Amino acid sequence: MILIYIAASLLISVFLYFNKITLIRKSLVLLFLLLQIIFTAYEFINKGFTEYSFFKADALAILMLITLTIISIPALLHSYDYIYKEKDNRRARSIYYVSMVILVMSLSAAYLSSHIAVTWIFVELTTLSASALIFHRRNPGSLEATWKYIFVSSISLVFVFIGILFLSLALGDANQETLHYETLVSLAPNLNQFWLRLAFIFIFSGFTAKLGLVPMYTAGIDAKDKAPTPAAAMFSSVLMNVGFVGVFRFYEIMTHSQLHQWANHVIMISAFISVFIATVYMLKVKNIKRMLAYSSIEHMGVIMLGLAAGGIGYYAAILHIILHSFAKSSLFFQIGHIYKTYKTKNTYFIGNYFKYNLSGAIFLLIAFICVTGMPPSGLFISEFYIFKALFEANYLIVLIPLLILLTFIFWALGKNVFKILFTPPVDFDESSIEKVNPYETLSQYILMGLVIYLGLFPPAFFNDLIHEAIKNLI
Amino acid sequence: MINILLIVFTMSLLFFAIGNRLMTYVKILALQGVLLFGIAFYGLIESDLLTLIIILLETVIVKAIAIPLFLRYVIIKNNITREAEPYLPNFVSLIIVTLIIAATFMVSNVIDDIHQHKIYFVVALSALFSGLYFISTRKKIITHVICYVLIENGVFILSLAVGKEMPMLVNLGVLFDVFVSVFLLGIFINKVGDVLQDTDVSQLSNLKD
Predict the structure, then answer these.
(1) Complex ipTM above 0.90?
(2) Closest to A161 (Cβ–Cβ): which among B113, B155, B161?
(3) Domain, as residue range, for A383
(4) What is the Cα–Cα distance from A175 to A413, expressed in whole angstroms?
């Protein structure tokens, strides 16, 4: 099935590239969404089934795949009204849709891959398609963002590749079969510790470019700022998840070796510095899109702290990353509406949002409550479990500064969101305002509703999948 | 024979440090492509014919001919001035690269578990770290792409040291990705040249907080 899926997606993107008629483009995009849904359903039904020895539908892959499918539906459909209003040429529009399709396809394949080198190839493919999306506007700003993104990501993926080579040194007699994640987990106790340490350092720092942690987080911020809103929504949710999947699968190997504690400390240092940097920048930035990008860095830091703390933290990390994907992507869609209304991203010139777009303003208020982890948001529950895990693992020295930093972030985000909602804007000309259709907000409400629902009443199959995903972690 | 080729490769890094012109860098890349072919050929002589053909394709065709020609085309098309414009004098670069090589040499001597691959390891790591050093000290963005290829060459040597067992499929995927990356980076340099009239890193520092 996966080969059919990849081939069909490539075929659809070829048609999209050469097609000139709007109606055919719409139907091709709908066809791809249908394919994506069928593929997800197929993998969900055939759980635990290995295809072509390189792809396996395990629980983590299925969770991430469902998240991706749910988010890609509004992302692709919103692209219509989003792009139509712009003065762009047909070629740029075709490239936009082709890159979107390739991005979704390579993300799905990277989640499902059960071989570390195959994951590498598809993650590299996400970099290439994402850079075409960032370049969509073709102005100096997007040019700079694209350049930085493609360069930093390429260097990071070279790091991952070096890590894979060190991993084969750690194995001693590496061959094609032994680089499967499952084999690696079973061989983990006997791996050479020196090379395993080096491999972990290189692979972890390489994947941080996607995951958005110190040291390689920088390129992602500019990318999310300059990419079109639907693409930015994908970058801040499902593209970050692919970095998480890469780190998580390698972390699984580390938990079975003697270096478990050491790996925890490496992750913890990187995650805590990320939260700190996110706090510092969020207190300072005026650009609302960049502020949300830093908020994603903060959430990823919290997730990785949960992973490093262990215990209930494992469950909470997976729950948090899924809920964060829904929350952050819907917020980015809303930023698209704010930009449409005010034609700026600077909070200084944005205000009185309730007056201009009622449904969007109510959503923004709910989203603020959800994304900062206040009840009834599901993120409250996962963050609470992560704090509990840190407390139980005796990491008070991390937990207390973390809570202080999160309070700062709460204040910084609240200050800007309430400014947008209630304070009158500076120099704003009301006459030329572009009305937002309230129905376009519907998808955002649905996604945010999922954040609350999945956190408060997680369905049984969802809980089982998360527990199955973490069952290999000790 | 392999050792001689690897040592020549290391010397090309020193030459890179004192090179002043962009075309010198491109020529060094082409030379490294040929050296990589020699190293791979002697290392993998016992393997089957198909592997040898693919290695030949990967090193000679792509690394020694296609990429240098493409970079040359980018340089000529954008009228990039031929000076490399380093931030530090060449003499300092030479000392730093020498120090990098010496340091990796000492580090690899400390590790007792490298079996017979010690020289591969030294050369690969020196190429990696000198590449990162060159990226941080050169002003033009085309040199960043050149140094990216340099790092890739180092990684290729490392993969030879460990990767006789690496599946061919993976190697092909890696080759494809590297080629596309270089190609895309080159296209973007053309775009930067069109939009900004000057392909300089200082033009690309407006996005910050």
Answers:
(1) no
(2) B155
(3) 261-474
(4) 50
Residue B145 belongs to some domain of the structure: yes
Cβ of A192 within 8 Å of Cβ of B113? The answer is yes
Of the partner residues B161, B173, B209, the one whose CB lies closest to the CB of residue A285: B209
Weakly modelled stretches of chain A, pLDDT under 70? 80-88, 173-177
| A318 in any annotated domain | yes
Residue A377 lies in a domain: yes
Confidence of residue B81 (pLDDT cuts 50, 70, 90): confident
Chain A residues near residue B170 by CB distance under 8 angstroms:
117-118, 121
Q: Per the domain annotation, does B203 fall within a domain?
A: no
Containing domain of residue B105, as a range?
A: 2-111+141-197
The token duo for A360 is 């969007």
Rg of chain A over CA atoms, in angstroms?
21
Label residue A207 left, alpha or beta by phi (over 0 means left) and psi (-120 to 50 means alpha).
Answer: alpha
Number of domains in chain A: 1
List, in sequence order, the alpha helices (H) in A212-287: 218-226, 229-234, 240-256, 260-282
Residues of B in contact with A284 (CB under 8 A): 209
Give the other-Cβ count within 10 Å of A360's Cβ.
26
Would you call B209 and A192 a contact, using CB atoms and an 8 Å cutoff?
no
**What is the predicted pLDDT for the residue at B163?**
60
Q: Is A53 part of a structural domain of the chain?
A: no
Residue B171 lies in a domain: yes
On whether any CB of chain A is under 8 Å from the CB of B127, the answer is no
Measured distance CA(A111)–CA(A242) in Å, rounded: 7
Asked if B25 and B146 count as a contact pair (C-beta separation under 8 A), the reply is: yes
**How many domains does one find in chain B?**
1
